[in-house]
């Protein structure tokens, strides 16, 4: 048997983890205690794990998070009205399975973006397609897509995601483009997939912020009623870190 040919065939099939283990077993005399069945299972597990990790890495890359933060980095000690039990229940991602939303509000610097993106990273880890937008970037992309004819393609991409995160909602003024786009997105994702929104602006002021009463009513009815609410408070964590520094 031409073992080198077997290794090359495994590589050509993009079974790199399997080819690596097979090479090590032949040339470095590793895994001598394994039976044939055990060694095949080892190779399959290694290949599955490598492909799984690649898929996670691709989902994280495509999400385009602005921060690299995981659930393990969350600070529960700060006085900002963050209930650890509540947040850890959200990290189970049951809300995605139930097509529910999360709204995180509070003053600047209390960690709204950190919390939203930690959930987003967890979603990617469990193979959920996630898209992250800062509100200003979202508004600009909507306008550009409307002008260059790619709006339906963009809408389809957002609709196909399991989780959409919109950060700093409302800091950039609404116009007809963003108002109608948000209506389209909320309508498309309603009862189908989830949205996380962070904002410095209290939910009670969103109706006025969105404008055009009928559209605002429709958006808020679909977005807010099926949502988990985190209302953070306290001083900026960045300010506290600067003082400690």
Integer average pLDDT: 90
Show unreliable segments: none
Number of helices: 12
Could you give the count of β-strands?
5
Helix- and strand-based class?
A: alpha/beta
Instruction: Calculate the terminal CA-CA distance, rounded to whole Å.
Output: 65 Å
How does the major sheet shape up?
A: 5 strands, parallel
Helix content: 55-70%
SSE run: HHHHHEHEHHEHEHHEH
Which band does the percent of strand residues land in?
A: 5-15%
Gyration radius over CA: 23 Å
Coarse morphology: elongated
> What assembly state would you assign to the polypeptide chains in this entry?
single chain
Strand order in the sheet with the most strands: 2-3-4-1-5
What's this model, at a glance?
The chain is of the alpha/beta class.
Please render the helix and strand layout as text.
Layout: H1 3-12, H2 16-27, H3 36-63, H4 84-90, H5 94-97, E1 101-105, H6 112-125, E2 130-134, H7 135-148, H8 151-159, E3 163-167, H9 176-189, E4 194-199, H10 206-210, H11 213-223, E5 227-231, H12 237-244
Parallel strand pairs: 1-4, 1-5, 2-3, 3-4
Helix pairs in contact: 1-2, 2-3, 3-6, 7-8, 9-11
Describe the structure.
The protein contains twelve helices and five strands. Helix content is 56%, strand content 11%. It starts with a helix and ends with a helix. 28% of the residues are buried. Helix 9 (176-189) links the parallel strand 3 and strand 4. The protein is an alpha/beta fold. Strands 2-3-4-1-5 form a five-stranded parallel β-sheet. Helix 1 runs antiparallel to helix 2, helix 2 (16-27) runs antiparallel to helix 3 (36-63) and helix 3 (36-63) runs antiparallel to helix 6 (112-125). The chain is elongated and about 75 Å long.
């Amino acid at each position: 048997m031409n073992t080198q040919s077997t290794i090359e065939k495994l590589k050509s099939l993009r079974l790199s983890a399997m080819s690596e283990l097979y090479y090590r077993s032949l040339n470095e005399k590793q895994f001598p205690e394994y039976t044939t069945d055990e060694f095949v299972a080892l190779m399959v597990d290694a290949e599955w794990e490598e492909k799984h990790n690649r898929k996670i890495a691709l989902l994280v890359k495509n999400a385009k998070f602005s921060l690299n933060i995981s659930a393990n980095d969350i600070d529960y000690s700060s006085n900002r009205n963050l209930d650890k039990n509540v947040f850890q229940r959200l990290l189970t991602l049951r809300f995605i399975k139930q097509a529910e939303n999360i709204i995180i509000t509070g003053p600047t610097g209390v960690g709204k973006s950190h919390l939203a993106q930690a959930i987003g990273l967890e979603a990617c880890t469990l193979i959920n397609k996630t898209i992250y937008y800062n509100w200003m970037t979202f508004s600009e992309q909507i306008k550009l897509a409307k002008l260059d004819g790619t709006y339906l393609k963009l809408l389809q991409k957002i609709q196909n995601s399991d989780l959409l995160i919109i950060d700093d909602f409302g800091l950039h003024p609404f116009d007809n483009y963003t108002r109608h786009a948000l209506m389209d997105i909320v309508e498309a994702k309603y009862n189908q997939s989830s949205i996380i929104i962070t904002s410095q602006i209290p939910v009670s002021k969103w109706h006025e912020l969105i404008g055009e009463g009928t559209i605002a009513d429709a958006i808020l009815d679909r977005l807010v009623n099926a949502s988990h609410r985190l209302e953070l408070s306290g001083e900026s964590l960045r300010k506290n870190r600067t003082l400690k520094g």
